[in-house]
Amino acid sequence: MLANVFTKTLRDRWLGWLIAVAVVGSFVWVGMLAYQGIDLSVMESFPEAYQALIGLRPGMDAGALALSAIYGTYGSLTFAAMALAMGAAAIAGEERKGTIGLLMANPKSRTTVLLSKMAALVVLSALAAVGMWLLAVATPAALGVNVGDLDVFAINVHMLAIVLFNGLLALAIGSATGNRGAALGVTIAVLVIGFLGTGLLPMLEWGEDWVKIFPWYYFAGSEPLYNGVDWEHIAVLLGASALFAVAAVVGINRRDFKGQSVGVTMID
To answer: Which terminus of the chain, N or C, has fewer Cβ atoms within 10 Å?
Structure first.
């Protein structure tokens, strides 16, 4: 085991994030190529609910559709899932595997270990956002696709904010409970319900105000790809993330660790 928890976590996790960037980036590339060869007006005949979920707009071209639907929607969901999985495994995963005792045998406090893993989560999320920004800028240029005034930087800022929100929420739950399943389950529920609610509730007469309860609204509600960064929405997501970070530190210092592998089957 490396003496530095931060670098060990980076070493253990960087490949998964790199694969995620490569896969989403390749989907954007293929999407731009494919969308150039079809009549995109046919998408206006799709159900309104589906159009709302993936951010379809009348008159979208290949560049806008690939960046909005593939990158801005499914790409952001992918990176949010990466972050919440990493957050849930940071402390609760160590307890589940029975390795938390070995980790704590080093001359490091609980808080230091937690902050090291938290810092690795933030760094990998930020590097993924930078990587996707570079790919989102380079891909249309390489393919000769005109993206017009689409704000790729803004969608990356919003993506990073929602990724950190989900990762630190899972980390807070896992640190406070030691239950990786609860951390995953609750955070996935928040992510999926927020995604569906943000897309569908505005279609209902009474849903316009209620949609603001969902974290995903603060990622997609201002349509950053078209309107730029909404710093108020970013502040909401980062403020909540900061609270989750504090809750994680408090939670990990208020309970006893499980000293052995709990609930792990032979298959696990």
So the answer is: C
